[in-house]
Amino acid sequence: EWPAALRLLVEMQELRVQLDVTTYNAAISNCAKGSQWEAALALLAHLLQMGPGPNVVSCNSTISACARGKQCHRALHLLRDMQLHRIRPDVITYNTAISACAQVQDWSSALQLLSKMPQLGIQPDIFTFNATINSCETDYWTAALELFARLQLHGPRPDLVTFNSTISACSRGHHWAGSVQLLEGVGQLRLKPNVTSYSSTITACAKGRQWQAALAILAEMHQLGHQPNVISYNAAISAC
C-alpha cells in the first residue's frame, strides 16, 4: 500500500538511513499502483534534486502513475524530460506513455509515439499495439483497423486483447460489418472469443440496426457455451 511505503520512506530519512534509487523506485511503484501521480511526481523530483538520480525504472513508474491518474500531458512531459536527463527510454516507457494517451483517447499522440519507436531503435511489441488501438476506440476506428492489418502482415501476432479492442473501435465507429469480420477472424487465428468479444460485436450490430446478425451472434454464444451478460442482452434487445 502506498501510504505505508511513504511512511517507511519518511522513517528512513528520520533515522538517517541513506536512500538509494532502488528505495525511491519501490516507493514510486507503490504510488503508481495506487494512482497517486502527485506523490510519484514529488518523489521523482526529490530523486532529481537530492537523491542519487533517477533511472529508467524511476521514470517508467512515474509515467505509469500519471497514466493511471489520466494525466496524459504529464506523462508525455516526463517522456520528453528523459532526454534532458540522458535517460534512455525502453519499450516499457513507450508502452506506458501510449497507455496514458489511451486513457484520454488521445489517438494522435499515441500514433506519434508508435511511429517514433523504430527511429530510436525500440521494437514495438503486442502491448504497444494494443494500447495504441485502444486509444483509437472512440474517434478513429479506421486507424485501429489499419494497425490490426499491419499486425497480421508484419507481426507481432494479435492476441485476444487486440481483437477485442479493434472490435470495440469498430463498434464505436458504427462499423458493424468490421466487427463481425473480426469476430470471425478470432477463431481463424486459434483464439477463443470471450463474452467481451461477442458483446462488443452485438453492440456494433445494434448500432447498425442489424437485428438478425445480433440475434445470430447471441445464439452462437449459447451454442459455444458462453453465458451472455447484461451487456449482451441489452445490445441484442436494442438491435430488435
TrEMBL record:
Top-level taxon of origin: Eukaryota
InterPro entries, sorted: PPR_rpt, TPR-like_helical_dom_sf
Family matches, as PROSITE patterns: PPR (PS51375)
PPR repeat residues: 20-54, 55-89, 90-124, 194-228
Cross-referenced NCBIfam families: PPR
Protein name: Pentatricopeptide repeat-containing protein
Organism per entry: Polarella glacialis (Dinoflagellate)
